[in-house]
Task: structure prediction
Amino acid sequence: MSAVDALGPDAQNAMRRSEADHPSSAVLAFGPDQPLVLEAGAVLAPWQIAYQTYGSLNADKSNAILVCHALTGDQHVANDHPVTGKPGWWTLMVGPGRPIDTDRFFVICANVLGGCMGTTGPASTDPATGRVYGLGLPVVTITDMVRAQARLVDHFGIDSLFAVVGGSMGGMQVLEWAAALPQRVFAAVAIATSHRHSSQNIAFHEVGRQAVMADPDWAEGRYLDAGRNPKKGLAVARMAAHITYMSDRSLHAKFGRNLQDREALTFGFDADFQIESYLRHQGMTFVDRFDANSYLYVTRAMDYFDLSARTEGSLARVFQGSRTRFCLISFTSDWLFPTSETRAVVHALNGAGASVSFVEIDSDRGHDSFLLDIPEQYRIVRGFLTGAARARGIAGPAPAPAGE
Amino acid sequence: MADLSLPNPDVRVDFDLIADLVTPGSRVLDVGCGEGDLLALLESVRQVDGRGIELSQAGVNKGVARGLAVIQGDADRDLDQYPANAFDYVILSQTIQATRNPKAVLESLLRIGGKVIVSFPNFGHFDVRLRLLLTGRMPVSKRLPYTWYDTPNIHFCTIRDFVALCDEIGATVEKAIALDATGNKLPFTAPWWVWNLIGAQGVFLLSKPAADRAPAR
Result:
């Protein structure tokens, strides 16, 4: 049990609440005269972005890597989480001697717009009313998340990022960066992602949102004002989503039809099966660190993402003339963002004449593979970044340790 | 860790020949690039902007891990995605005999590349002819190690067959080189039938039919 767990649920809840406005991370605040113009047309001001950095920026500012987090991730990619006390979510990828080597690169990871860990989102206080935004926050998109990140990159005086790297929704941001700001992205690593959210993916997100909104404690989105928390709805949303992050095979291997702490079926609706108990646990731990309205906003941002919609369906035209070096990775058992989606992006990049590497990694652990200890992924990203660093004329990551 | 930018020491005999045919700094696509040995060689001695396609996932992953731009794909299926004249050179090294439709593949290569380089084992070599003649069985040798039922090489051809295919699709043979069994170049003055008999490998530099030539990019 970590020190944070020892505080108990109420203290953890209070900490989560305070992270929204006053995060433990560094914060870049933009005043009323520095608005963020959103894709929907709304203007956000004042607003703020919370971020973590690792390593140091070199003199000509050419060694910066932006890491983009996924739906329920945050900026704490390589340090212990301030609310849960758990290690960062991608310590196998980011850190000293890792592929995104913090001894060589200046690594930035920011909480997304609409998030709940210090960047402006629905749990932040609306300066106009002094109350939390709730559903009063305009709907944000992947484009808006990238616009916000670009302002942070401007703040560091970085014209061109050495690399933008991310998986799942993080990969969407990578593709958005490469499409919208190609001259600012030297290399792009997009993992387990797509150029658009599929109908099936939108469907799963809608189930999650409806679960949140069906919880009476959601209180039409004003639960923070009312001192309530739609824990049950958000937990159900997380349970449903969690299934989509794994494969049938990995579930079967891990849980099978094994019973949870009992010898026989109880002929009731307790969590008889280990898989039920596991999902309930996933749901309940999630609500301690995530805001329900944030879940609505960020899933919506993913649903709205469709790069080819801007060029009448031609994805190749989105990347026409791009000089960015792309690396795309998919996993064989990922049915949420299957290889066919990645391959469509690869075909478009080839059609656009872009430089592209594409690898499908054999893994039976589903969409979550990109977060797990699958050495091939790290070997490939290390190799790709080494080649890209050579082309950029900067130091690449340290050589791979034995076993990667 | 070895410097992965350098190719393995025992590069295939035709790699150096191919490198000689490529203009420095050009854009190159290697179709059937394996683990990227030729691409790595071309990047280091010709400073090319190189891309690769490879059927085997293991080959692709190794190529990408050494910093090369390689994708998983199939010469028979995945060449359509590239626009015309996307590359200065498209290379098909020791791969044409493994494609399902060599004629269509060659036509695609001529569409997407300004120049095309093809190397292949010559099935007209006297050693092959002798084995078939004397033993009555499909030849198996050090260079052609597969038996007929497990070979990936489903479309063997001779140097003369290949020249005839080039004629049929209107490709111009700009340069042709034959290597004997020990990897030495045969004299340019030798007639085709000599090459076809004692050439173990053929390396061809082709350009596309005049009608398809694009203005210089």
Remarks:
- The first helix of chain A runs from residue 9 to 21.
- Chain A has a mean pLDDT of 94.
- The CA atoms of residues 186 and 391 of chain A lie 10 Å apart.
